[in-house]
Amino acid sequence: MSENVFKGSFPVESVEETWEIAKRLASSLKPGSIIRLEGDLGAGKTTFVQGLAAAMGVKGRVNSPTFCLVQEHRGGEAFLVHMDLYRLRDEDDVLSIGWEDYLASGAVLAVEWPDRAGSLIPSDAFVVRITIPADGEEKRLIEIS
Ligand SMILES: Nc1ncnc2c1ncn2[C@@H]1O[C@H](COP(=O)(O)OP(=O)(O)O)[C@@H](O)[C@H]1O
Ligand SMILES: [Mg+2]
Q1: Ligand with an atom nearest the CA of residue 130
Q2: 54 and 48 Cβ atoms separated by less than 8 Å
Q3: CA 68, CA 47: separation in Å to the nearest integer?
Q4: Which residue's CA lies nearest to atom 4 of ligand 1?
Q5: 86-97 pLDDT, tens per residue?
Q6: What is the CA(3)–ligand 1 centre distance, in A?
Q7: Which of 30, 99, 113, 143 matches a 20 to 30 Å C-alpha distance to 80?
Q8: How far from each other are the two terminal CA atoms of the chain, in whole angstroms?
């Protein structure tokens, strides 16, 4: 059985186009899918999660969870957990916020600053890398692998 997983390199020119790419990735996600969100501060990682949340039908606003680290979003059967590990240092810190329970929960896990989690994130996770081209403004390059 061939899996039709959404991957590729997508130049976008607005927040709405970023949401559209997120929505297309959402259709490849299953309970327990993990997404590594890579990119500098302001690249658009949280914005991308807003698009995932909308596509999954979760309720409530998606804000940057930098200060509370984890936000849980539920809607119907959807369960999205949004983490921002920026303020953590290492795997021990990540374990201390209940990492293993989230991993076992069946939630879709969207993780900003995933390098903090070291080897805790399985190698089959989706990688979403967002970069801002030199001619910046609202342009972004979103690479999904
Ligand atoms: N194409 C785009 N995609 C995502 N964000 C964009 C885009 N163009 C402009 N922005 C702006 O860049 C900022 C990205 O912020 P955010 O998503 O919080 O970044 P991060 O979570 O990576 O730090 C927002 O203010 C957003 O409005
Ligand atoms: Mg963010």
Answers
A1: 1
A2: no
A3: 17
A4: 44
A5: 999 999 999 999
A6: 30
A7: 143
A8: 20
- Say if residue 123's pLDDT is above 60: yes
Taking a C-beta distance cutoff of 8 angstroms, is the pair 12, 21 a contact? yes
Question: Is ligand 1 within 6 A of the CB of residue 42?
Answer: yes
* Domains assigned to the chain: 9-139 (3.40.50.300)
Residue 117: pLDDT above 60? yes
Q: Is the pTM of this model over 0.90?
A: yes
CA distance 4 to 49: 21
**Does any ligand 1 atom lie closer than 6 A to the CB of residue 44?**
yes
63 C-alpha to center of ligand 2: Å? 8
Contact 130, 39 (CB under 8 A): yes
For residue 32, what pLDDT band results from cuts at 50, 70 and 90?
Answer: very high
**Taking 70 as the threshold, does the pLDDT of residue 133 lie above it?**
yes
113: number of Cβ within 10 Å:
20
